[in-house]
Amino acid sequence: MNSCARIFLSTALMAVLIAVLPTVLPFLASPVAGQDAEALIAFARADNPEIRAAAEAVEAARARARASGLPPDPMLGIGLVNALVSDPLSTEDFMTMRMIQVGQRMPYPGKLDLEREAARWELAAAEMEREHVELEVEASVQRVYYEVFFVDRSLEIVRDNHSLLGDFLSVTQARYGVGTGGQQDALKAQVEQSRLGDEVLALEARREASLAELNALLARPSRAPLDEPSIPDRIVAAALPEPGREVRFTAAALGSEPEEGPIPDLAALQRRAEAENPMLRAHAARIASQRAHAELAGKAALPDFDLTVGYGQRGGREDMITAMVSVPVPIFKGKKQDALAAAERSELANREARHHAMVNDIHAEVAALRASLVRARDQLALLKEGILPQARASLESAVAGYPVASVDFLTLVDNQATLFRHELDYYRLLSGFAQDLAALERVIGGEVLR
What pTM value is reported for the model? Predict the structure, then answer.
């Protein structure tokens, strides 16, 4: 191959690579390697745009806090005083002066301190709101991550059941071939296989949508791959009883006395949420800021002092100085300053009332999430220790009995479908427990399990 041909081939290959690279790049992105939910949270903290936006809001509030509480800029004036109309630039007249003056407004004592206080509370609120956004993103990452976990386990179960139905179909066709089975059994097996195949397609679409949502939270391409998700051991240990340990229900309706489980009692969780929830703390800071604004509005009618000092130069005559103090006269106090002060007090009362409503809403959310966690633990205990072993034993018995015609095909398929449903319930409850725990930790503002 001559040099021209090699150059042409290299150029063609480069053109093809450039053309297909944008299409294949998402698939070439390295998976979020070996990463559990904690590692994904670290990615989100670094790259999530909502967290970055909240951090910029904090910097904006910090800049405003630095600028608050400073007096107004001084005023510098230069001009002519008492100039002649006939000759404005003349300085021969004894009243004409070239004047320079400096003025400064001095707010009434205490006003600047209140401005600084309001700005400091606004900065504190922005910092708490950033923390709230971080917790929201973390909870969203965990929610979607555990959703992918459930879908992956569901796909495994559905595919295993699809394969098992294939085995059933082989036995059914063999029995039908020798005249010991009915054609409807084979048709039933084929219908069940088709139904499970359709469920695989639905689950794969659901996984793709969940993965795209997760990658959006991580600021990654929608199709960036993810290693097989798992639920952390601490959450599994909280959701499931230890091997060999007697199952004791945490709900009084299912047992005589609730056990001392890993989930704190409701009153303790509500107290923690009221003290540590970032949105409540941010709202409390904004109430404090509004209180400072209301107090400042109450001082609006108190006079600010304008101090002015001037120096006038007169041609051929003695120079002059000027000093002046001026204050505003609040002749519209009842209609203006008092009305604005009343508006700020009403806004303060509004925020205080909304804060009580927020506390009540958070108490209710904590109660609902804790109840869901307790219910999931009880249901998981029932499934793990009772329902699943019994369903497996029932299916094994039916599988052993079907080839020898001691069990009919309908019973076999029903037992298989029952186990399939309970296995899905198990992983749905386990992933739901992890999602509810993440949501509760978002509301509490920290770890929950003891």
Answer: 0.79
